[in-house]
């Protein structure tokens, strides 16, 4: 897989941690997101939210370190509460979150809807321990931290496999071969032949993931570095948050979260961890060890779904960035 003349077998001594954003960058982002949230909501103030959350948590509260683009989340200052309170611009599909809980178990925090405060929706979530991965990413990508990163990769494999193993039939997926094919058609415009060839291969495989016997699953669909937490000392994933964009779709379309763990995306490059090939092998060994024996057709289906998800996520980036990302992520 080539990226600007370099293969996926990167220099095994290169330290890519320097390309990851520092924790302070996320502090600034969170402050901006909080300001924007309350600028949008004229009938609910930050003080209103603090008063309500303090009553719920029985403690003064402060914003959590990581915020969302359409929500405001606070935790107890006392450190004794086991919950956080979240105020959202739009209502969550709590039923879908509940099904995610059934599929992924303790990786998903419990959620309870409390109604509205002014013009925002109020939820209580379990407090997920440990920092968001984005805040320790620079440490984990350092070569000296490879064992912790390996544990994160193994936990992501177990997380991903859970949706195959515990797969309750909950609803019909609105997705279809035709819809996915149209998405790939949109992405294909302007792609170099070498990438379009891979995209066409994925398009030809789409009927595999819409077979009646192929599982559909609740999937996070936004598995970014700020949306899961880790134990800083061990690398274990302690929970996955922000399920607002969860989807019910053919299994595997969100497996691209592995690339988020193993690399850093800049404006014009994707930098992989020097040992990412080995770490990816650990992922797949653990993943298939968890789900057990499956057919060659199902294995091919999982790969088609994974590649479709990567094309859909990065194929709409602007300018040359999309070519760089797709080259790095999809060209096996």
From TrEMBL:
Coiled coil: none annotated. Residues 163-251 form the Aminoglycoside phosphotransferase domain. InterPro entries: Aminoglycoside_PTrfase, Kinase-like_dom_sf. This is Aminoglycoside phosphotransferase domain-containing protein.
